Amino acid sequence: MTSITPTRLSDGRELIYFDAHEDSAARHRDPAASRDTRGLPPRGPAGTARFDALSGEWVAVAAHRQSRTHLPPADQCPLCPTTPANLSEIPATDYEVVVFENRFSSFGPDLGALPETPGWGTTATASGRCEVVAFDSAHEGSFGSLSPERARTVIDAWAHRTEALSAMPGIKQVFCFENRGADIGVTLLHPHGQIYAYPFIPPRAATLAARAAAFFDASGGRQTLMGHALAAERSSGDRMVIEGKHFSAFVPFAARWPVEVHLVPHRQVADLAGLSDEERNELTTVYLELLGRLDAPYPTPTPYIAAWQQAPIDDELRPASYLHLQLTSPRRAADKLKFLAGSEAAMGAFINDTTPESVADALRRATPTENVSGVPARKDHP
Ligand SMILES: [Zn+2]
């Protein structure tokens, strides 16, 4: 059972402790022990969102993000617990999992809907919310190096935030994700993920949702597109990586990246908040095993983007939507990364130099690495 303790940072941002252990939760409930003494100045206004009439897509203009922290040394890490020498973003001497509003936010802090019929030259407040999820108080690692217990608490935090953010005014999509590796733009080494709550449905989510809705409607509301894909993958087995009781992981038929895996629940659920306790338990072990397999073939950690595709906050699209994780890596070899070149970056047309079947075969054969980040694996709360 995860205890949830909300508080505020000195500039008014919300911070929430998620604890599996009652002694830890009790410390966080004590206002004196977790007070932010930094006296931060008030937050600036939200940035703007511009409508690109040529593509129909919104673009957030967040020039203030240029000043954000970039790969700070461990003794100045903003995600480590606070010490007298490092008054970090987390005003506690220790923690399990913490979520807080990003100080360098692309969306928010204002909330509200974007104009319904944007056109040429439409500019609006970039409303919404961006949150940071600190996975563990230890400075090094990533999701894959968490103990199962800690990973399970992160899943509860994602589920809680998905439900809470989905209920906020103007939010259309909640996106939980983790970027791993400086090669793909990570600016903090401390194990963490992010949650974006957008005031619009982002382009790729919109494409997936529209395809899912068309399939669902054509089947008279009896079949989901992802359910159909999952059944086909489980029956053929050619691209399967892990098959559990409640979750399966497979390389998609038309994978775009050198490494791409979809982790899919066997039951249709709209988002992480819809998963049962039993499903969350299995997700913990299956996801940790999958990340271990991803690292196994190489001497260094594989950079990746782990992206949760959840149902948009939209009554028409939601019934057809199906929660799943899209795990992608640009790694082509131990020391080679795929860069998005002309065809991919300019046209959105991917060319994959590997076959999905050979990637699935390699991931199936791999012996999962417990942890390659140099910190003790499977670290549990003392
Ligand atoms: Zn740190």
Automatic annotation (TrEMBL):
Keyword Ribonucleoprotein: no
UniProt KW Protein biosynthesis keyword: no
Residues in Galactose-1-phosphate uridyl transferase C-terminal domain copies: 224-365
Biased composition (Basic and acidic residues): 22-38
Pathway the protein contributes to: Carbohydrate metabolism; galactose metabolism
InterPro entries xref list: GalP_UDPtransf1, GalP_UDPtransf1_His-AS, GalP_Utransf_C, GalP_Utransf_N, HIT-like_sf
Necessary cofactors: Zn(2+)
UniProt region (Disordered), positions on chain: 22-49
Protein name: Galactose-1-phosphate uridylyltransferase
Gene from which this protein is expressed: galT
